Amino acid sequence: MEACGSSHYWARELSKSGHVVKLIAPIYVKPYVKRGKSDAADAEAICEAVTRPTMRFLEMKSPEQQAILSLHRARDLIVRQKTQTINMMRRLLAEFGIIFAQGVGHAIQFAKRVIEGHSPELPQAVSDVVTDLSEQLLMLHGRVNWYGRRMTTVAKSEPRIALSRTTSVRLREWGLDMRKPSRPAGLSSAQTGRTQDRI
Length: 199
Hints:
By secondary structure, the chain is mostly helical. The chain has helices at about 5-15, 25-30, 40-50, 65-95, 105-115, 125-155, 160-175, 190-199. Among the domains are: about 5-50, no CATH class; about 65-155. It is built from eight helices and no strands. The longest helix is centred in the C-terminal third of the chain and has 33 residues, at about 125-155.
């Protein structure tokens, strides 16, 4: 079955009925489509792709995994909306000679000053728009932080993440740190750097 919207749900349902379900990424199915986009052409391409001996299949996601993924997707949407709002404010204010420093933090501080009544001298209509965008920016910023906290809470209950953290702790207890490259005994960091440069 081609991995698309709702495919993981139907894969779980079919598995309950005793079927062996294999999910194929759309990018691996596309080369086998012989004609225009249609259900029949897609079905033929899937049947052709699944017979390939080197075909790679996707793992079926559990409801818990999809729940975590929904948080990531929603947060990604909110982050894009926040970036769009900042860019809109920057372009709008630039038309009146008002520039604030680059970075999300500076944009948030500017929006807070506007909400507190310290808005720059602008025509009333523009001032109303800037105030509305500032409120929207602060709201989106709060939503991004909420999703971050929610993802942290959910991740703590995910067995795979818990196993990864346990493994990292044990490696550090054994004097190993996978995040840093090991250095041969007797060599300083400067000597190691020169050795890596030669490599």
